[in-house]
């Protein structure tokens, strides 16, 4: 997360894992990270700021501490390292690296080499000369000394290649310089009054010399013989400054430092008694200060030296530059309060008026206040982004549940068309197979049992039947009371619709053995009727749309069920013809009178000669053992095996059993954990179970009554 501080142990763990994956050393990983970090800083908008730190590599390194100090205004928890560079012979440099964070020093060569190549067009090599732990007053510091060697300068080679162009530029500069000198001379002679002594003209002439380059290159400053500012004015103009000698005795202090650090200018008071050095972390003596004279110094007031009433508020921090005054052997510390925001200004009981108008600290505080507001806004945006990601994840889960429920009510392709706002056109199916089933003596059972017992019995039975719809890839149309209706060949046509429904009916009969009659405690008995013929299918209703089947085939299938016998699968003549020579054992019932149809020769389906009971039930045979046979007979397996047909569109993956109580959706529809939403090309829709019972076993279904 941006603007978030992570512990170094996390960084080191990541580096160690990278080493294990890539098979390289930690030093290589850190150096590569340093190169990338430089590119990352450029991409993050710090390119121009980094380029203006210095005109060469040495100046760039010398100003790194100042850059870190500025960035620390916004990034309050930043723990930046400190750099000090010494110039050696033959262009070599000694880079001193100080850090509280051990183990990360190998990042430095990656950064410095990338900076040298990108900004200064030079190749450098770095090696570690010394590495030790220094015990300073402020704590342990890792001190690493790098030797920097500049190997080549491509910029010089480019300059030689463009030598002719450079010589022309120099000539034009000299001509412009000569013309400027003549204009200055004429102006000087024109404004002169009276006699002009030669020495004054010589002074002017010494400023501009022919053929010596630009004016700035020959500039020589002129200092007054005495300082034209009184002591009181100086201390007011620079309210935050301290002058101290080699023994750290305070000689002079600005008025506001005296105001916020009382007793500082007492006779023979040592600066180290009132302040400690925060940065650079060195011993507080004149030798260490001179050694880091080019660094930015941060001093912190000692809390124990403050008045008792001030000890509860944050201590004052000063940030500025040390200037050595050789003539009086004293050091002047030109500084400003180190403040990050207006809140810190208030905490220290200070005001903007306490800071000198010429001091840029005023602008830094106001600008950084805006920067901190932007950082806080960015943090809020990232937090909101994370919250939205979590909400989106939860929304996807809820959407999955909604789609599962929707696909349980309608075929998937039909539901998708309705979601898109399209109208679903009714379809004509020239041939399909419809099955109806009901429970024998269901009315008597309802009269003698509690409602919850009826619900539990139906739920157990329908759960087992629902599981079988996945095994044989048939579509569950609806349930009304104890009546269960499925169809094969709708809504997706298939040539083996009769075989699928027949195997489903045999599976229903097997499953019914495991559902107990709450009155007698014996297995319930069901009647099953099957008929094959043409139907019309379409979606009806707006509030609770249903995918319904219409036609005489529905009515005839219902008649097969109502005229059937307990534990028998009753077949119509058309279904018998569809199943003939398909490996099923079928016996003729004979000619019977069918209400509304007259006399019909019907049949009973006995068994599938080519499929075992386990195959019909969708149980994995490889998992069945002899010692599990009895247990397997009492409960369904928790794995569904799709039965193979010649025209199978695709095999469903294994899923949890339908009788898992935790997998039951509202209305008795089973949603297995591993069951894919797109299984069986959308053949997993159903209507929720309704709890009201039929008034009579011989009564036709609501569908048939409507037709």
UniProtKB/TrEMBL annotation:
<feature type="coiled-coil region">
    <location>
        <begin position="367"/>
        <end position="401"/>
    </location>
</feature>
<dbReference type="InterPro" id="IPR042463">
    <property type="entry name" value="HNOB_dom_associated_sf"/>
</dbReference>
<dbReference type="InterPro" id="IPR018297">
    <property type="entry name" value="A/G_cyclase_CS"/>
</dbReference>
<dbReference type="GO" id="GO:0004383">
    <property type="term" value="F:guanylate cyclase activity"/>
</dbReference>
<dbReference type="InterPro" id="IPR011645">
    <property type="entry name" value="HNOB_dom_associated"/>
</dbReference>
<keyword id="KW-0963">Cytoplasm</keyword>
<dbReference type="GO" id="GO:0005525">
    <property type="term" value="F:GTP binding"/>
</dbReference>
<dbReference type="Pfam" id="PF07700">
    <property type="entry name" value="HNOB"/>
</dbReference>
<protein>
    <recommendedName>
        <fullName>guanylate cyclase</fullName>
        <ecNumber>4.6.1.2</ecNumber>
    </recommendedName>
</protein>
<comment type="similarity">
    <text>Belongs to the adenylyl cyclase class-4/guanylyl cyclase family.</text>
</comment>
<keyword id="KW-0456">Lyase</keyword>
<dbReference type="Pfam" id="PF07701">
    <property type="entry name" value="HNOBA"/>
</dbReference>
<feature type="region of interest" description="Disordered">
    <location>
        <begin position="652"/>
        <end position="692"/>
    </location>
</feature>
<keyword id="KW-0547">Nucleotide-binding</keyword>
<dbReference type="GO" id="GO:0020037">
    <property type="term" value="F:heme binding"/>
</dbReference>
<dbReference type="Pfam" id="PF00211">
    <property type="entry name" value="Guanylate_cyc"/>
</dbReference>
<dbReference type="GO" id="GO:0070482">
    <property type="term" value="P:response to oxygen levels"/>
</dbReference>
<keyword id="KW-0342">GTP-binding</keyword>
<dbReference type="InterPro" id="IPR024096">
    <property type="entry name" value="NO_sig/Golgi_transp_ligand-bd"/>
</dbReference>
<dbReference type="InterPro" id="IPR001054">
    <property type="entry name" value="A/G_cyclase"/>
</dbReference>
<dbReference type="InterPro" id="IPR038158">
    <property type="entry name" value="H-NOX_domain_sf"/>
</dbReference>
<dbReference type="GO" id="GO:0008074">
    <property type="term" value="C:guanylate cyclase complex, soluble"/>
</dbReference>
<feature type="domain" description="Guanylate cyclase">
    <location>
        <begin position="433"/>
        <end position="561"/>
    </location>
</feature>
<dbReference type="GO" id="GO:0019934">
    <property type="term" value="P:cGMP-mediated signaling"/>
</dbReference>
<keyword id="KW-0175">Coiled coil</keyword>
<keyword id="KW-0141">cGMP biosynthesis</keyword>
<feature type="coiled-coil region">
    <location>
        <begin position="149"/>
        <end position="176"/>
    </location>
</feature>
<dbReference type="InterPro" id="IPR029787">
    <property type="entry name" value="Nucleotide_cyclase"/>
</dbReference>
<dbReference type="InterPro" id="IPR011644">
    <property type="entry name" value="Heme_NO-bd"/>
</dbReference>
